[in-house]
Amino acid sequence: MKENMSGCSVEESMRLLGGRWRLLLVSYLLEGPKRFNDLRRDVPGISQRMLTLDLRALENAGLVKRTVYPTSPVRVEYEVTEDGKRLEPVVKVMKEFGLWLKERDPVRVAND
Amino acid sequence: MKENMSGCSVEESMRLLGGRWRLLLVSYLLEGPKRFNDLRRDVPGISQRMLTLDLRALENAGLVKRTVYPTSPVRVEYEVTEDGKRLEPVVKVMKEFGLWLKERDPVRVAND
Predict the structure, then answer these.
(1) B8-67 confidence digits (pLDDT tens)
(2) How many CA atoms lie within 13 A of A42 on its CB side?
(3) Domains in chain B, start-ordered, CATH in brackets?
(4) Most-buried pick from B24, B31, B41, B45 (CB within 10 A)?
(5) Which of B11, B15, B20, B108 would best serve as a mutation to test chain A binding (most A beta carbons within 10 A)?
(6) Does the pLDDT of residue B74 top 50, yes or no?
């Protein structure tokens, strides 16, 4: 039962974070607030639509906050919330695992 | 540049682990070797086809080993490899985050 509950918790996390880009977006936002176009530049592989959807999902989950500044043109910034900072250890282990993966398979990873 | 490389590493990890089920499967396999049908029971939401594909992806990445025992009927077991054990800290933080998420939003998570 306990294992089962823990299993469920992994599923819960992955349901929210399991997309290819969400944790990557969080990893950039943990550096500080960013505008939409900053994130597009940081993550060149993501489409504008996917970026919008992923940011909205993170916002709906209370992990990212979107602030609109009434400048002209309007400036929209995204930042991690206090809850979002709980993803710091998740991002950390994913980075470490990804680094190890790239060192193990430099060619395969590049050609993927 | 350093941030960028770390960012890439998160992407690398998520490219391999980002599906909804893969880390969950690894979390069950970290308990010990399992047969295909054990995993189907552990993860009732997954289709047979998806389970096959996810196990194969983990196998191709060298994280899971598939062993066929020449019994009758043939017995096929899956287990994590030494490399796969590197996912233990990843599973751990995902569990912790998922638990926190469920405690924070018991209703939302249940209705998702």
Answers:
(1) 899 999 999 988 899 999 999 999 999 999 999 999 889 999 999 999 999 999 999 999
(2) 29
(3) 20-111 (1.10.10.10)
(4) B24
(5) B11
(6) yes
Tokens of A19: 């997309």
CB contact under 8 A, A98 and B11: yes
Tell me the nearest-neighbour CA distance from B80 into chain A, angstroms: 15
Please state, in angstroms and rounded to a whole number, the distance separating the CA atoms of residues A54 and A26: 10
Q: Report yes or no: A9 and B98 within 8 Å, Cβ to Cβ.
A: yes
Task: Sort strands A34-35 and B34-35 into parallel, antiparallel or unpaired.
Answer: unpaired
Return the exposure string of B20-45: e unless at least 16 CB atoms fall within 10 Å of the residue's CB, then b: bbbbbbbbbbbeeebebebbeebbee
Whole-number pLDDT of residue B6: 59
| DSSP 8-state class, residue B112 | -
| CA distance linking residue B23 with residue A25, whole number of Å | 19
**Residue A93 to residue B93, Cβ atoms within 8 A:** yes
Residue B1 has pLDDT above 90, yes or no: no
B68 φψ region: left (φ > 0), alpha (ψ -120 to 50), beta (else) = beta
| Chain A CB contacts of B88 below 8 Å | none
For residue B28, the model assigns a pLDDT of: 96
Rg (CA), chain B: 16
Task: Determine contact, residues B84/B29, Cβ cutoff 8 Å.
Answer: yes
Task: Look at residue B105 in the predicted model and tell me its pLDDT.
Answer: 84
